[in-house]
Amino acid sequence: MGSFEEAKRRAGVLKAQKWLRERSKAEKAGLVALGGVAALLLLYVVIEDHDSLFVVAETVHFIGIGFLAYKLVRERNCSGQGLTLAHFRAQLEDLRQRIAHVRAQLEHHRHTSAG
């Protein structure tokens, strides 16, 4: 059986969900925008080397592309997308990744050779 603390936590979560459901779409959009700004501000304050944010973002994006490719190879579909659209998107994302990789190499070369 669950503990009293667990029941208390679950009641708090349910109360927050109910409060959020009662908000209008405009209020929800405002909350999402505020949350996004807060997350970016937190990242700016916490992370010392801001160049690493680019690397992290590209890594997460690359993992997503890998997941898309895996689904295309294994399941031959992408969750409701047409197969030709999925192939087209995968090709575009592959091109984007190649451009980002070359750009990152050029930026690294520029930073290392400039001193």
Task: Report on the architecture of this protein.
By secondary structure, this protein is an all-alpha fold. The protein has two domains: 46 residues, no CATH class; 68 residues.
Question: Any descriptors?
Answer:
115 residues; mainly alpha; 2 domains; 84% helix
Q: What's the structural blueprint in terms of helices and strands?
A:
Elements (H helix, E strand, L loop, with lengths): L3 H18 L3 H22 L4 H25 L7 H32 L1
Helix pairs in contact: 3-4
CA distance, first residue to last residue: 62 Å
Radius of gyration: 21 Å
Order of SSEs, N→C?
A: HHHH
- Based on DSSP secondary structure assignment, what is the total number of beta strands? 0
- Mean pLDDT comes to 79
- How many domains? The number is 2
Count of individual helical segments: 4
Condensed summary:
This protein has 115 residues and is mostly helical. It has 4 helices and no strands. It has helices spanning 4-21, 25-46, 51-75, 83-114.
